[in-house]
């Protein structure tokens, strides 16, 4: 689609960063004036912003992936991966709170539900739920914090791609969390029925990310286009249900342990198959020639009948003979 190609080019021009607001608004106005939409559908700024945001993080996630990827199609058909995942418990029943890092200009805050490996000191990214529309947006900056009379901490948030005038005070415990992760094609196995996911809901007036619960997953064989699975989700904010592809789903970071377990299981399976069917030792099966003499290689069905009359033929080296080194393959 020409519009997607145009946005891809703009994203590359801005070094995989979200363009300024006026560029996104100009794109929204331009797309609204297209022949297919003029007078019917108005493309909003938030829709354009969401596309750039999701595409940017999808590219970043792909670039930061470890070299080893899980090949779902190589798993045995008899193995029910989803059942295995249901039987795997997370590393800890309750996620330990950690401290926010990044562009927080005030003392660090403890955020329940955010966890990072102790050996991983990488920068944490967050998302927050806007009180204006109930959708989730990526956090660009934490500007300030305060404590309410109820004891609940709040932070003043500037959302990525929005102006300073659009900052909001957000309840830390309920509406701030570690950023959800766009799914690669091989990660569909980590999305199970009952999971909380962040799902892209497209409507006539807006297209935003909302919390949703996965009700069912229809597994399909992948092809050159990637994941063909479909997921039935129910959005939390309006209780509507929809069947969506994997590209519209962002999984929660707490599901990372499932992929780790699958990688471990795949490696164990490969090692087990290697032990059951070891590669043949050519050195042990190759007959050793006597005194290092060169042995003519002649197919059995092409032997000269006259040779059978010779009771003790001498193996003379020949320029056409194939040399077989002793004890090697």
UniProtKB/TrEMBL annotation:
Q: Which Pfam families match?
A: SAWADEE
Residue intervals annotated as DNA-binding region are 3-63
Q: Name the InterPro entries on file.
A: HD (IPR001356), Homeodomain-like_sf (IPR009057), SAWADEE_dom (IPR032001), SHH1/2 (IPR039276)
Question: Which segments show compositional bias classed as Polar residues?
Answer: 283-293
**What subcellular locations does the record give?**
Nucleus
GO terms assigned for molecular function? chromatin binding; DNA binding
Sequence ranges assigned to domain Homeobox in this UniProt record: 1-62
Q: What is this protein called?
A: Homeobox domain-containing protein
Provide one Gene Ontology cellular component.
Answer: nucleus
Bias class Low complexity marks the residues at: 305-329
> Which domain of life does the UniProt lineage start with?
Eukaryota
First-listed, main subcellular location of the protein, grouped into a coarse class = nucleus
Q: Which organism is it from?
A: Brassica carinata
Chain intervals for the UniProt region annotation (Disordered): 271-329
Q: Which keywords fit this entry according to its UniProt record?
A: DNA-binding, Homeobox, Nucleus
């Amino acid at each position: 689609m020409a519009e997607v190609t145009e946005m891809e080019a703009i994203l590359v021009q801005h070094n995989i960063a979200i363009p300024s607001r006026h560029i996104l608004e100009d794109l929204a106005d331009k797309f609204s004036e297209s022949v297919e939409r003029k007078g019917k559908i108005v493309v909003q700024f938030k829709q354009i912003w969401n596309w750039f945001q999701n595409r940017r993080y999808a590219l970043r996630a792909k670039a930061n992936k470890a070299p080893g990827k899980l090949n779902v199609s190589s798993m045995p058909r008899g193995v029910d991966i989803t059942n295995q995942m249901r039987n795997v418990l997370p590393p800890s029943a309750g996620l330990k709170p950690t401290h926010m890092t990044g562009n927080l200009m005030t003392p660090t805050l403890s955020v329940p539900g955010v966890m990072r490996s102790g050996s991983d000191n990488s920068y944490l990214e967050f998302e927050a739920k806007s009180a204006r529309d109930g959708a989730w947006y990526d956090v660009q900056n934490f500007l300030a914090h305060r404590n309410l009379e109820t004891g609940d901490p709040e932070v003043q948030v500037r959302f990525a791609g929005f102006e300073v005038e659009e900052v909001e005070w957000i309840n830390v415990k309920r509406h701030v969390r570690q950023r959800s992760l766009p799914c690669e094609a091989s990660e569909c196995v980590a999305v199970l029925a009952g999971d909380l996911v962040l799902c892209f809901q497209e409507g006539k007036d807006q297209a935003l990310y909302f919390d949703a619960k996965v009700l069912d997953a229809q597994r399909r064989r992948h092809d050159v286009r990637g994941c063909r699975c479909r997921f039935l989700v129910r959005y939390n904010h309006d209780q509507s249900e929809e069947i969506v592809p994997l590209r519209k789903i962002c999984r929660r970071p707490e599901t990372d342990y499932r992929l780790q377990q699958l990688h471990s299981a795949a490696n164990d399976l490969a090692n087990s198959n290697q032990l059951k069917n070891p590669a043949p030792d050519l050195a042990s099966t190759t007959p050793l020639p006597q005194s290092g003499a060169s042995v003519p290689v002649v197919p059995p069905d092409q032997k000269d009948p006259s040779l059978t009359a010779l009771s003790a033929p001498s193996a003379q080296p020949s320029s056409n003979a194939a040399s077989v080194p002793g004890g090697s393959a």
